[in-house]
Amino acid sequence: MVKNRHTAISIIVVIIFGFGLFYTGTDGFRAFTAESARTLEIVQTQPEFPPVTLEDSKERTYTFDEFADGRYVFITFMYTSCTTVCPQLEMNMAEVYKQIPDKYIGEEIVFLSISFDPERDDPETLAKYRGYFNSDGETWRMARINDKDELESLLDKLGVIVIPDGNGNFTHNSAFYVIGKSGHLLEVMDYTLIDEAADRVNTILESGEGS
Description:
By secondary structure, this protein is an alpha+beta fold. Helices cover 42% and strands 19% of the residues. The strands form two sheets. The chain has a seven-stranded mixed β-sheet with strand order 2-1-5-4-3-8-9.
């Protein structure tokens, strides 16, 4: 009887200890998967957006600093040949764009879709693609980064995983990214939660967070 009681107590202690480790290791249960844990770590460290040169759908070339120009930047990463998640990602981005008050669009925040397939996604291709989502090419631009090292540095800094499958397609993660006015990553959001993302962006705009 005593032995059974000691065994039960031992099991309870192990469970509590394991529970505590799991709670700590998942930052209060927010990081249930390796992907969410990695995303949480990136958001907490708030990496600076690295220097890159963009070429957009209007054949304009500029650095990210000139594009951001003291504004927030709402970003997605995609490639136009994608037939799975990317179209939905951009459609959802368009829905977030619609929920941002006009007074902020272009003045306080700009939207940017960056292709990680620069060889195929030239300005002409990007111009055609943005038409599918009513991107105006100004307050919401689509662009590529031609320099391979710059592109890889950016993807690494923001935790964007892109794996070519050898057949012209890529396995990749998808999210909404918000860069603050300071040039540092401010937020990574689930791209499937449109209203929540729009609410968060509007809160950032109203509060001036990340300036």
